[in-house]
Amino acid sequence: MNLNHLTEPFHADALAALRQHGVVAIVRTKDPDSALANARLLLASGLRVLEVALTTPGALGIVEQLRAEAADDVLIGVGTVTDIDAARAAIGAGAQFLVSPNLRTDVIDLAGRHGVATIPGCLTPSEMVDAMTAGATAVKIFPAHLWTPAALGGMLEALPELPCVPTGGVSPTTAPDWIAAGAVAVGMGASLTKADDPAAQARTLQEAIAGVRAP
User: Fold this and answer.
1) Which pLDDT tens digit goes with each residue over 73-106?
2) Is 51 annotated as catalytic?
């Protein structure tokens, strides 16, 4: 697998952030106000990699606002980027990474030319290798509920350099298992934002992941 592109600064920085923080917090709501409130709450809880789904009304405006007010160590990305037009719009709004439910090499290429990281959705090892060969920063195993941590660990024995972000069906309970199996991070949305206390849930999650990674 050719991972030479990961020496490029935008890939290296994004991948380092994924590995360091272990969570991509996904904000997906039915209105802009609640999305912005959720985003700010999750960032205040210590999460540092946040994805705003394009299915959220006003998503691009939210990204612009978060980029203007977020700390330097925060990465703000756009999710549900399914085609090249959505990718252009997200990049124009200041997205630092693009997350997709599908694999589009034209999206990966466009993002790369603009210094924006990409995490395309893949289900099979072949798709994942194709994504990385095309220049992706990491791959989103989606939907993750069709996989298991054990299956991920087995795949990574053959493809140890593959940076994976399981997303879709990952819970605070199972997230540490995915990290222990070799995932660089997990993607989580509703299980964070719809918790009784999202900030407390986020802090508990970060502590659990840190515990798995502790020497």
Assistant:
1) 999 999 999 999 999 999 999 999 999 999 999 9
2) yes
Q: Per the residue annotation, which of 30, 127, 140, 194 is the catalytic one?
A: 140
Greatest C-alpha distance within the chain? 45
Catalytic residue among 8, 30, 51, 69: 51
What CATH number is given to the structural domain containing 135? 3.20.20.70
- Residue type at position 130: D
Per-residue exposure over 150-182, b if at least 16 CB sit within 10 Å of its own CB, e if not: eebeebbeeeeebbbbbbbebebebbbbbbebb
User: Each residue of 156-190: pLDDT tens digit?
Assistant: 999 999 999 999 999 999 999 999 999 999 999 99
pLDDT band at 3 (very low <50, low <70, confident <90, very high): confident
- Residue 63 lies inside a defined structural domain of this protein: yes
For residue 16, how many C-alpha atoms fall within 13 Å in the half-sphere facing its CB?
10
207 among known catalytic residues: no
Is residue 215 in a domain? no
CA 106 to CA 78: how far, in whole Å?
A: 16
